[in-house]
Amino acid sequence: MSFATNSPFSQMTTDDQNSTCPGIFHCNCRTEVPSYYGYIGVGIAVIFFGSNFVPAKKFKTGDGMFFQWVLCIAVWMTGAAVNAVVEFPKVYPLAMLGGVLWETGNITVVPILKTIGLGLGMLIWSTTNLVAGWASGKFGLFDLEVEKIANPTLNYIGVALSIASFSVFLVIKTTPHHYDSMDMPPESNPLMLDDDNESAVNYASEATLVSSNRNGDDEEPMFFEKFSPLGKRIFGISLALVAGVFYGFSFDPAIYVIDHPNTFPGAPSFGLCYVFSFYTGTLITSTIYFIIYCIVMKNKPKVYAEAILPGMLSGFMWAVAHISWFLANSALAQAVTFPILSAGPPLIASLWGICLFKEIRGKKNFILLAIGSAMTIAGAVCAGASF
Residue 175: what pLDDT? Predict the structure, then answer.
């Protein structure tokens, strides 16, 4: 596949591109995507982001490095299929940077889990992710075009409600589901555990979210596990902030290409045309990190064969969610999609926790869940209506 240079399309004017465009699922033209596509994309993304790690919940994933590599392979394969649907657009190296940013943020999840726990870590990176992505579009960071929002006040309210909902979900107490020997190995843990050994909300919009394997194989402590309690807290919070920023800015490279047609002649405006570039960057970065991990582990990585198929399915589901987010960004605006897609998946994950894993119990937790859900829905409505 060639790169985005010297394309015959690059000699066309914007008017020519629009006049010859056969539909939005083509990458040889610039065209507007109907807003209802965006709302459909948001709905699909919320459901799949809130569900994508359910297939892997019963399986041992160790330190997560092998699992995230398998996941990224499935993500790339899904991106290759989308690439065929949109007729094999050119690969944009700058758009690949988005995949690098996302995977770099993703690789920090295990250290975050082991230093400050999932609850605090998720609250920090989710909030930072939301603010970074929303601000990119709202204020035109990194020379992006400033997105036009019809009702800024409503948009601000939506963002505030979405951020506030994180705090409510954080304090919901959950009970891990204990599987018997017929279901899974006795040494296995639920997919996500916090420092108090309680299962947390199974939300993985932007992360590997794997077991810290406390009851599994004996492992030599990682360097950050030798820090003092204060050192661990500073290290974990710093990583969570970095992860959130990288997640939030991961769409910006592709959007920069779209917003600068003079710099990138012939660049399509349809977000799905950049999915393969993004996912290629993700897989390359994941592979590099996995190789480094194998070297550090002296060629004895923690590999769990039973996690391969669940990891592939989780990767496919994550890819579908992320593709839907690309579609939503094309039709709506980051200032609209980020508040919804940062706060919506915890609601879906909580429903899985209630209905399938029986992890959320008790009147108080149900009240908190209802409050958090109401805030999430209200925030989504405000953000969506503001466009």
Answer: 59
Nearest C-alpha neighbor of 338 from the set 49, 8, 109, 21: 49
SS3 for 91?
A: strand
Helices 93-106 and 229-249, interaxial angle, to 10°?
A: 150
CB 65 within 8 A of CB 364: no
Report how far residue 302's alpha carbon sits from residue 287's, in angstroms, rounded to the nearest whole number.
15
Query: Which ranges constitute the DSSP H helices of 171-267?
Result: 229-249, 252-259
Q: Are 46 and 195 in contact (CB under 8 A)?
A: no
- The whole-angstrom separation of Cα 157 and Cα 321 is 25
- CA dihedral angle for residue 259, residue 263, residue 268, residue 269, rounded to 10 degrees: 10
Identity of the amino acid at 48? F
Q: Encoding tokens for residue 66?
A: 């092998």
| Total Cβ atoms within 10 A of residue 223 | 9
Task: Give me the residue label for tokens 């995230």.
Answer: 68
Lowest-confidence segment of 100-104, 157-161, 199-203, 348-352 by average pLDDT: 199-203
- The DSSP annotation for 95-113 comes to HHHHHHHHHHHHTTHHHHH
pLDDT in tens, 228-286: 888 888 888 888 889 889 988 998 999 999 889 888 888 888 888 999 999 999 999 99
Q: 68 with 310: CB under 8 angstroms?
A: no
With beta carbons less than 8 A apart as the criterion, state whether 288 and 294 touch. no
